[in-house]
Fold these 4 entries.
Entry 1:
Amino acid sequence: MRIPAHSVCTAIRDDIVSGAFERGSRLTEEVLARRYGVSRVPVREALRTLESEGFVTTRRHAGACVAEPTDLEAADLLELRLLLEPLAAARAAGRRSEAHLKVLRGLVRLGQDRARRGQGEDLRSLGGWFHETLAQASASPGLIALLTQLRHKVAWMYAVEAPARPAEAWAELGAITDAVARGDAERARSLTALHAERSFSAHRLRGPAPVRTSQHAVNTASART
């Protein structure tokens, strides 16, 4: 069975973001194929995709390597989020489905409940699901792809501190959901921009991550897609 390149791409990207591969380290097709239990063909395709996304770079005499983004490039990511997330929220206000609203409202209820209980360990993943759902609700494939790539890169380059007042942060997400439900694009845009600006101060640039040794086979029924 031929393993899809996008599954291999997801596995490599996840390992880059998690720090399994150091920034600047070489990514050879042979080693990667062995690591993930696939042939070199999907690895080669995956590396091309990751290079186009900015996670991988090709160096003369070295081949494919994990990219080493600069502080300026990292700062640009937050600026792009500030532009694109409000745009996604505005589009979601006009294009969202009832299914999207149901998920957004459910996430807000869960987030507010966890915040009241002081269960901060769940809040980061819930927040990520909220923003992913909001992007999906924009019904704009290009915008969704850009925001997905941004989330991966921000997770790679930044450590994010828990908000000092999580209840207030989730109240903001609740207000965004209400604006989207009413179809108020401008309010959804402005509230999302304000929420993104407030979150900037919680981001701290990561140093080079230590190498981890976990391996992920992708040629199984449980392969990531």
Entry 2:
Amino acid sequence: MPEPSDAAADAAEPSLEEQIAAYQREFQDLDPQVEQVVSALQRLNRRMNVAYGRQTATLGLSNAEWEVLKALVVSGAPYEMGPGELAKLLGLTPAAMTHRIDRMANEGLVTRERDETNRVRVIVALTHEGREKWLEAMRLASVFEEDLLQDLSGEERQLLGQVLTRLLRRVEDAQPDADGRLSDLD
């Protein structure tokens, strides 16, 4: 007889319709339209994260490394940040950030050097190789994303983007400290 965790892993996820029907059976006040939107967004997010993780893995990058590369690129040229800034931005402890930077420096994706103007401060900088890895990940992601949205017209894409941005703003306004990390819930 399989262990419960094995049985759970083998069980297929119910369809959205089946999930909503089960929720309605147990909680009669449920709005099925709201639940369909929220459940679809959750499933889409989970599956997209898996797809992105597979893509970065083909490049020899972990999701954790991708997050650092992304943060450095978004910071703008010269693509530098302090490890404390990175840790805070990514919701990591300083020790976890140090470990991540060590690994990435050994792989040639970033450098870590003392700030010449403030010898106490360390600067983490994106290398040419790190930027190339980021660009290749972006190329793969753009192909995946174009395929994902291929059935939507330009107008539908624009409308979807606007609606999702409104939802995101509502959550951000209601939970301004919930920057996408669950560390406060661990």
Entry 3:
Amino acid sequence: MSSKGSFLNASGGRGRRVILWRHGQTAWNLERRFQGSTDIELTDEGMAQARRAARLLASLKPDAIVASDLKRAAATAAELASLTDLDVAHDGALRETYAGRWQGLTHDEIMTQYGEQYAAWKRGEPVRRGGGELETEVAERAAPVVLGHADKLPDGGTLVVVSHGGTIRTTIGRLLGLEPHHWESLGGLSNCCWSVLGEGARGWRLLEHNAGTLPEPVLGDDD
């Protein structure tokens, strides 16, 4: 097992779940504009998405909520907190990938100005998009936060992590022990959809992916 194995929970037997929930819609999602770590608020529809999803997630009786401190994730998390009476722990390590010069550009602008860099990233090569973070660096900051909060759960407990598309994908890839060039195969999350990891005897397993609604377009895959 490579060094990423240190992130895997090998204890088994405790039956814990981690739900990784993407934030609701923003105006930049609709414009296909790369947000990255830019602090963009939810649209009215994004707030409505958060309220609908929160009702479903509340029925799973989560034990804890941790969220990115960016407005779009914090506002999404607040809807679940209001239904569960749980406090939200905010952590900047759960922010979306910092993508430097890509941030604020539309998909078409990125393809025009950074087409070769985009193609290399899609091939699974380690790329600092716009001069920003590597995906492995995002996983290295986010995965330990998720595991730290999961370790505090009771047996059979559930943690909800409210974050961003790219950060969730890289965190899932790291927790499953996948090689980084395979992380893209997980696919994106639609706004306010989630993935579920369950704890097994040999570590974490992907139980559900992009759950929570009928299939919808994935807007702003990495933000």
Entry 4:
Amino acid sequence: MEIEISSCEHLMYVSEIQQEMYDSAQRRGTGIAKRSIEYLTKKISDGNAVVATENDEWVGFCYIETWSHGQFVANSGLIVSPNYRNRGVATLIKNKVFQLSREKYPNAKIFGLTTGLAVMKINSDLGYKPVIYSELTQDEEFWSGCKNCVNYEILMKKERKNCLCTAMLFVPENNNKVNGTEIQQSEIDEYNGEKESNLSV
């Protein structure tokens, strides 16, 4: 399996990725903001995403968004193909996109909103901490992305102070090292070692 910073060669997967994002959100009844083909195409073409592939099939995807004039970064749209779930792929992708975010925006705070315990664990390992919503970007465009979520009415009733999602934030000055780099490399090495031994991940 290859986990790469996106380029134009990955555009062949954009329709499948968009469809799986939509299907996954429908199954969960919450989550990922709907993104157009054009939006995802630009993210991929500009190298602001991470794509995992194996045997010419897409395996997983995540992209970078910036808010509040680059003060905040979100690693959004994390999705893994149903055929490759429960193999540690999401962790590898999150580590890679986190590293890319730190390289491109070293002074930005990195945040996420999630209802998934697995994602919370990954974020925690990377140095994110749970926070209240007021510590996140207040960019109206970001919050408008929640309109596609079934819980949007709850968010608005609570005056955007909280909802069913847990907010998590990585603050660069509170972290002496980018532990995501170490985690990513060790997990990739472990994955490659197991692959060579024909063991399942």
